[in-house]
Design a protein that fits this description.
Rossmann fold; six-stranded parallel β-sheet; alpha/beta; 2 domains
């Protein structure tokens, strides 16, 4: 056991609590990632998993918010959109995405909420010495992950963002929201058309199941294109395999996950926001 591990498990009456909520909850790994960060920052804070049943969602979250030594809540599936009405102050990124994945108790007792899924990807890119500003992005998927990625990329200064989703209405709605919030970004929808883009992102779950192929045809893909898949498991996907075969630089969902861990740690006081 390392010194950080020893610090992490030293809990007493002064310890401040954070909860991560979801249904199911057994799959979450955030406590393993964030608790050592809190310990390393000298914080007497511990993150605990809490299984919240859908039929008891409101009363459970309100009960957690009433716990005097609970300072924050991390939100995972399926509650990122459902949590919004319970937040006193929805911060701009969460408002634009329409979902929040982290809440923090303010000094006055009110709760603010923000969204870090897309910000995690942006931070991961910067950690990899890739500046998202002025990149030209082809984004596949306009669901929860795609919405967070689209808003965060536009906020980071991408010059072109083309959004494709099999549900064209969903893609159009996301494009309109991004265009209004970030007029400097050229936002459009359409089929996956790689020429004219230097970044290709899959923000759909296609590739997780055995037998899945790429989420869209990859015609026109060249080695100059940066290719990212937000899927974490499996470690590689047919989408990434095809990109590597073409000579592309690729990243899987670990890029976004690690960046998100840094963002969340900073949100709760264990690091710096970028």
């Amino acid at each position: 056991m390392t010194n950080t591990d020893i610090q992490q498990v030293t809990i007493d009456g002064e310890t401040r609590l954070l909860a991560i909520i979801g249904d199911p909850i057994g799959q979450v790994k955030s406590p393993r990632t964030l608790n050592p960060r809190f310990a390393a920052a000298g914080m007497d804070t511990v993150l605990l998993p809490v299984h919240v049943k859908p039929e008891l969602f409101d009363i459970t979250v309100q009960g957690l918010m009433a716990v005097g030594n609970l300072d924050g809540i991390i939100v995972t599936v399926p509650y990122k959109a459902r949590i919004l009405p319970l937040i006193d102050e929805v911060l701009p990124m969460a408002a634009q995405v329409g979902a929040a994945n982290a809440l923090r108790r303010q000094a006055d007792g009110r709760w603010c909420g923000d969204m870090f899924d897309g910000r995690g990807l942006v931070r991961g890119l910067r950690n990899a010495k890739i500046n998202p500003a002025v990149r030209r992005v082809m984004l596949i998927g306009a669901g929860g992950a795609g919405s967070a990625v689209a808003v965060a990329l536009a906020d980071a200064g991408v010059s072109v963002l083309t959004i494709f989703d099999v549900d064209s209405n969903k893609a159009d709605a996301l494009a309109r929201r991004v265009a209004v919030a970030f007029p400097a970004c050229s936002v459009r929808t359409g089929p996956v058309d790689i020429p004219g883009h230097d970044t290709l992102i899959n923000a759909t779950p296609i590739g997780m199941a055995p037998g899945d192929g790429p989420p869209a045809p990859l015609d026109g893909l060249t080695s100059e294109v940066l290719v990212i898949d937000v899927i974490i498991k499996p470690d590689t996907t047919p989408f990434l395999d095809a990109a590597r075969a073409t000579g592309c630089r690729t990243f899987n969902g670990r890029l976004m996950l690690d960046g998100q861990a840094e963002e969340l740690a900073a949100f709760f006081g264990a690091g710096e926001r970028r």
